[in-house]
């Protein structure tokens, strides 16, 4: 039927021809995919079980994961969670993690990603007391006259530049190197310093929403704020997804839908 020879056969042994070897490799790959598909179907019927290792940036862990861990463990009592907080670009496979949570721009192309937060805005804020004493800047360039509190990235050691969008100029985004008298590698420390009136910070809106809503932090330069896709939960597209991972992704998407509604 194939009109070609697949096997060399002698009285003592057998071996594949070149065409036989190619066919063998294709069939092995296809059978492996079929086996994975059958396991995936079976896994959907299994109760999520075992240790789920999550690698997340600190902000995402604090705002998106930690508030809901108790509910997830109650819903799936045979699971356990290990939460690794890491602000670097983690290789979840090399680090032995099941899932990661990062902003979209930090994702590898070989990852399958699902959004777990709404769109995020990068806001510039200060306490009302600071602004009353030092005045409110009208443009990003006027920040040079203010004490801008700066975040040092733990992974790279670089100071974070402040980002803005030029609404008048067609929403063109640009960065400004601000200066100030306080630097920290912890974003919660930056928030505390802003709350006590030390200076101005730039942060993700949903991470400081409670302080803004309470009037403890006041947004400034709102017409210059940058918006971008939020956080994504991601897994390797090359690894079969066990039921515990599938359950956690569905759970996080459920929480995102509630936030958006």
UniProtKB/TrEMBL annotation:
Residue ranges constituting the HTH lysR-type domain according to the UniProt record: 1-17
KW Aminoacyl-tRNA synthetase (keyword) present: no
GO biological process, one term: DNA-templated transcription
Gene3D superfamilies: 3.40.190.290, Winged helix-like DNA-binding domain superfamily/Winged helix DNA-binding domain
Family matches, as InterPro entries: LysR-type_TF_proteobact-type, LysR_HTH_N, LysR_subst-bd, WH-like_DNA-bd_sf, WH_DNA-bd_sf
MF (Gene Ontology): DNA-binding transcription factor activity; sequence-specific DNA binding
CDD domains given in the database record: PBP2_CrgA_like_5
Keywords: DNA-binding, Transcription, Transcription regulation
Family of the protein in this entry: Belongs to the LysR transcriptional regulatory family.
Name of this protein: LysR substrate-binding domain-containing protein
